[in-house]
Write a structure and sequence with these properties.
eight-stranded parallel β-barrel, 12 helices, 16% strand, alpha/beta
Length: 342
C-alpha cells in the first residue's frame, strides 16, 4: 500500500478543512527538501495547447492550491500543469466554517469556501519563486464585497499582479460561492469583461499569453451557445469546463438527503462526471474547433481523461479524485493514457 493509502483512514477522520491544512503543512515541509524527484513524462504524452507545450495533458485544477504554496510538490508528482487560485485582488477570509464536506462513499465533495485568498500581492510574490519546468496558470476572481458593476476592476487588479508570474490566466466567473458571480457569464456582462481584460493584456505586452474563461455546468444549452460565441469573437484563448455544480440531482438518491442537509455549496467529484461531460460536448460542438477547451469536472481515471480528450478537449484537470485516491492517481492516469488502445 502507498503512504497516502496507509494514512487515508486517519486523514478522513479529521474535519476536511483541518485535514487540508495539515496536508499543506506537511507539503510545505516536503517542498523544502533540497532535491525532489524530477518527473519523467513519456514523449507521447506531450500536448500543445494555447501556444504552450504541455509535457502531459493532465493538470491540477484550480481550488486546491489557492496560494501557489506547493508548486514544487505538484511538479514532482508529475502534473503537466497546475492552475493556482482562485486569487482575489485583496485578501479575504472566505465564508464561515464549516464550509467543506467530503462524501467518500460517492467520491463527492461539497464546498462553499467563498474564494478564501491571501490576495494577489502575496501570491504574486510567492510565484516569483516558482520551480522551473512547470506550466502554471493563475485563476482569478473578484472579491466578495465588490459589486458586479465593478467586477472588471477586480479582475484587472488581480491580473496586473499575477499575469506576469504565470504562463496563462483563467477568469473564474462560475463559482457558485460568491454572490452574483455567475451573473457575469451572461453575454451582456461577459462581453465587456473580456474586452476589458484583453485591453489590459495588450497594455501589459502580454498578447501572447493565453487568457481562458472557466464556465459553470448549470447553464442552459442555448446560454452555452451564446457564451461560446462571445468568447470566440472576443479573441480570448480558450475555455475551461466545468466548475462545480449546484444541481443536487447528480447525487445518488440514498445520499442526496445527507448532502442537502449540509446546506449551500458547489458539488464536485465523480457524481458530476456525466453532467460535466454533457456540457463539455455541447461547448465543443458550438466551438467547432475555433478555440481549445480544457476538460474539468468529475474526471477520476485514465478512462475519464481519455474520454475527454477523445471528445475534443485539449487538456484535462483533476481535483476531487486526487483527494480520494492520492498521488498514485497521477501515475495511474499517465500509464493508462500511454497504454495501447483496443
Amino acid at each position: 500500500m502507498d503512504l497516502y493509502g496507509a494514512l487515508r483512514p486517519l486523514i478522513f477522520r479529521l474535519d476536511p478543512e483541518t485535514a487540508h491544512n495539515l496536508a499543506f503543512w506537511l507539503g510545505e515541509r516536503v517542498c523544502a527538501w533540497p532535491r525532489l524527484p524530477e518527473p519523467a513524462h513519456a514523449p507521447a504524452l506531450r500536448r500543445p495547447a494555447f501556444g504552450l507545450d504541455f509535457p502531459s495533458p493532465l493538470g491540477l485544477a484550480a481550488g486546491l492550491d489557492k496560494g501557489a504554496t506547493l508548486l514544487p510538490l505538484w511538479k514532482a508528482m508529475g502534473f503537466g500543469h497546475v492552475e493556482i487560485g482562485t486569487v482575489t485582488p485583496r485578501p479575504q477570509p472566505g465564508n464561515s466554517r464549516p464550509r467543506l464536506f467530503r462524501f467518500p462513499e460517492a467520491g463527492l465533495i461539497l464546498n462553499r469556501m467563498g474564494f478564501n485568498s491571501e490576495g494577489a500581492e502575496v501570491v504574486s510574490a510567492r510565484l516569483r519563486r516558482r520551480p522551473a519546468g512547470l506550466i502554471v496558470g493563475g485563476n482569478l476572481g473578484k472579491n466578495k464585497e465588490t459589486p458586479e458593476a465593478l467586477a472588471l476592476d477586480d479582475y484587472r487588479a488581480a491580473y496586473r499582479l499575477i499575469a506576469p508570474q504565470v504562463d496563462y490566466t483563467a477568469l473564474n466567473v462560475s463559482s457558485p460561492n460568491t454572490p452574483g458571480l455567475r451573473n457575469l457569464q451572461a453575454p451582456e456582462a461577459l462581453k465587456p469583461l473580456l474586452e476589458g481584460m484583453l485591453r489590459l493584456r495588450k497594455e501589459m505586452g502580454l498578447e501572447r499569453q493565453p487568457l481562458l474563461l472557466k464556465l459553470a455546468p448549470d447553464l442552459a444549452p442555448e446560454d452555452l451557445d451564446a457564451i461560446v460565441e462571445v468568447a470566440v469573437t472576443s479573441g480570448i484563448s480558450g475555455l475551461i469546463a466545468t466548475n462545480t455544480t449546484l444541481d443536487r440531482g447528480v447525487v445518488p438518491e440514498p445520499l442526496r438527503a445527507l448532502v442537502e442537509a449540509k446546506g449551500a455549496g458547489g458539488l464536485s467529484g465523480a457524481p458530476l462526471k456525466a453532467k460535466a461531460r454533457k456540457v463539455r460536448r455541447r461547448i465543443l460542438d458550438a466551438l467547432g474547433g475555433r478555440l481549445p477547451l480544457v476538460a474539468c469536472g468529475g474526471l477520476g481515471s485514465a478512462e475519464d481523461v481519455q474520454g475527454a480528450l477523445d471528445d475534443g478537449a485539449a487538456l484535462a484537470q483533476i481535483y476531487s479524485a486526487l483527494i480520494f485516491e492520492g498521488p498514485r492517481l497521477i501515475s495511474q492516469i499517465h500509464e493508462g493514457l500511454g497504454s495501447p488502445r483496443t
